[in-house]
Amino acid sequence: MKHTKIKALLESSEVGEKVIVKGWVRAFRSNRFIQINDGSTINNIQAVIEYENFDEAILKKIGTATAVEVHGTLIESQGKGQAVEIAVEDVKILGEANPDEVQKTVMQPKKHSLEFLREQAHLRFRTNTFGAVFRIRHGLTFAIHKFFNDKGFYNLHTPILTSSDAEGAGEMFHVTNFDLNNVPKTEDGKVDYSQDFFDKPVNLTVSGQLEAELGALALGQVYTFGPTFRAENSNTSRHLAEFWMIEPEVAFNDLKDNMDLTEEFLKYLSNYVLENYADDLKFLNDRDVKEQSAKPAKDRNPLTLIERLEFVANNEFKRITYTEAIEILRNSKPFKKKKFKYDVEWGVDLHSEHERYLVEKEFNCPVIITDYPADIKAFYMRQNDDGKTVAAMDVLFPGIGEIVGGSQREERMDVLKKKCADFNIDEKEVWWYLDSRKFGSVPHSGFGLGFERMVMFATGMTNIRDVIPFPRTPGNADF
Ligand code: 4AD
Ligand code: MG
């Protein structure tokens, strides 16, 4: 007989059936009630034993974290809190866990700080919070592929090792095969990359966009979903050195089409989690309510986690231009009272304090800001007719800040070449990208969703380190 997943058992009405369950003990009370979890759901199944019928040596081994195999009959629960439970006929110990050692870990059933949980990232999967977060992370991954597949997009695997700097921000991790204690040098003392593995400097990708554009200009609509790497030394709750990004790219889409696609996509993802992860969401919602109530009133989110997801699913995003955003900010109370740390004037990049003001105070809803000054955005963005701004868009979410960045791409060869010059990009380095503008160039657009920022939004976790299994941040690449 095969064992049944606990999720299926709890949903089944096969009372009276013989069942086998395999999982890890969460708690063992009164020598009688074993709470077992197998990861298929946040809910445990209760296995009830008549301890008089069991070998004491076996009972002694049952405790938090022990792996067990339980044989018994599914019965209607005698107690409160669950509909069904297992009347146990046999228990096998599959893997022991020393209670003294368990006590020192995050598996000990009590409240632990998220910092402590991070130090034990290898064990935090065993907790309710992280079980819920990683089930939802999976659900979002699946929903993303489903959304694009249903729309006829093709998933494209773009390179992870690359010689280009797509964003031009110079925040790349270099990849080399050199013995770093003995690096070959040219006659003038520079590193001789011609002797390296790829014959030239190579880095980990910061974005798959440039390659995705090439795909879109033949396959019509494509998307990437891969790891991206940024060596930005910003130790914040929203930045990782290794994060996952989803980058759709669509031929013939202009900026408005791009915004419409983004909005539909983010609504779809919010709905998907609401519809498919109710149990995990309920747990995280309660958790979030507790966290919010511990904050000072002015920092509290007026909506619960579930309400925030429903809000995104059911309300239109506000769309404003960068120029309008600057005007709103300059007329705001914090600006007039000199409460902003960074100055606001046309031409500067918006800082997170400004974005938060717009999203959380002024509009209280997701905001799409478009048409940024060309100087503060990447070289590939399409020049607007005013000659000053580009067809860029950033989507800002309450509590998260920037969740999506995108744009219409510059499809005109002459303008693109001029942008390369302005941004000091050697045409020889991006010849293949420029080539795509030579053969049937068309307007096209795309965006990048920071996957972990979406997982943060969907789970209510406020530190990005808590939505990826093993976070990589400055000074930390453990596990
Ligand atoms: O705005 P970004 O830099 O845009 C691009 O990379 C474009 N190539 C996307 C495109 O148009 N195809 O990054 C996109 C998103 C950000 O909005 C943010 O959500 C996320 O990626 N992101 C990060 N997430 C975690 N840690 C970091 N260090 C991140 N940097 C960007
Ligand atoms: Mg951006």
UniProtKB/TrEMBL annotation:
Organism lineage: Bacteria, Pseudomonadati, Bacteroidota, Flavobacteriia, Flavobacteriales
This enzyme's EC code(s): 6.1.1.22
Stretches assigned to the Aminoacyl-transfer RNA synthetases class-II family profile domain: 134-469
Positions in coiled-coil regions: none
GO-annotated molecular function: asparagine-tRNA ligase activity; ATP binding; nucleic acid binding
GO biological process, one term: asparaginyl-tRNA aminoacylation
Gene3D superfamilies: Bira Bifunctional Protein, Domain 2, Nucleic acid-binding proteins
SUPFAM superfamilies, per the entry: Class II aaRS and biotin synthetases, Nucleic acid-binding proteins
Known partners and oligomeric status: Homodimer.
Catalytic activity line of the entry: tRNA(Asn) + L-asparagine + ATP = L-asparaginyl-tRNA(Asn) + AMP + diphosphate + H(+)
GO cellular component: cytoplasm
Family from the record: Belongs to the class-II aminoacyl-tRNA synthetase family.
Gene name in the database record: asnS
Chief location: cytoplasm
Places the protein is found: Cytoplasm
Key words, A-Z: Aminoacyl-tRNA synthetase, ATP-binding, Cytoplasm, Ligase, Nucleotide-binding, Protein biosynthesis
Protein name: Asparagine--tRNA ligase
